[in-house]
Design brief:
By secondary structure, the protein is an alpha/beta fold. The protein has 8 helices and 5 strands, in the order E-H-E-H-H-E-H-H-E-H-H-E-H. It has one domain: Rossmann fold (3-Layer(aba) Sandwich), CATH 3.40.50.300.
Length: 207
């Protein structure tokens, strides 16, 4: 099974990815947890460039950098793991590019779709969870954490509103993408996520 987690920074998606992996491991599954960009030597190098506040990156270049890291991750890590029968959980994946660079940076969606297809080929998640919180809540959490923001996190409120709306647009057409209310306790959020996973596992077993 291939599961991805999406959301704006500080949404709690990484926590939910780890909780999900832990539950699968408790049931005896081999689980791989990876992040984007990253997960390979190339991906980690690209990640450092993309998040560096001193990097001046044009929107088009940003798309290709994210997609280059993803293409490497798919071929080097994700596809082999799925072929072995492992459960793969990825913190961000292709929907991030559509939402952040397509809707957020306002790069034409047809161009984004073409680049995404090249990067992932046929490796599409079985389930995607978008952990949704308001922009106000994001800002509140970032202030409370006192963590310096990276290059992507400094894009501004309007950018993040467009990005958030992009995820909602995706949810209208992608049945695999589930919107999860993120302004609750981690346990309550995970309970909803695991219930959806159980339904998908049952559907797959009888289908």
């Amino acid at each position: 099974m291939f599961i991805t987690f999406e959301g704006l920074d500080a949404s709690g998606k990484s926590t939910q990815a780890e909780l999900t992996a832990e539950r699968f491991r408790e049931s005896g599954e081999n689980v791989m947890v990876i992040r984007e960009p990253g997960g390979t030597e190339l991906g980690e190098k690209v990640r450092s460039i993309l998040l560096d506040v001193n990097s001046a990156i044009e929107p088009a270049a940003e798309v290709f950098l994210f997609s280059a890291a993803r293409a490497q991750l798919v071929r080097e890590v994700i596809r082999p793991a799925l072929s072995r029968g492992d459960t793969v959980i990825c913190d961000r994946y292709v929907d991030s590019t559509t939402s952040y660079q397509g809707y957020g940076r306002e790069i034409p969606l047809e161009s984004i779709k073409a680049i995404n297809r090249l990067a992932i080929e046929d490796v599409i998640p079985d389930l995607t969870f978008f952990i949704d919180i308001s922009i106000e809540e994001i800002e509140k959490r970032q202030r409370a954490a006192g963590i310096d923001t990276d290059r992507m996190e400094r894009a501004g409120r309007v950018f993040f509103e467009r990005t958030r709306n992009g995820y909602y647009e995706l949810a209208r057409t992608e049945k695999r993408l589930k919107i999860i209310r993120g302004e609750r306790s981690p346990g309550d959020i995970f309970s909803d996520i695991w219930s959806i996973i159980q339904v998908e596992l049952h559907r797959s077993s009888v289908g």
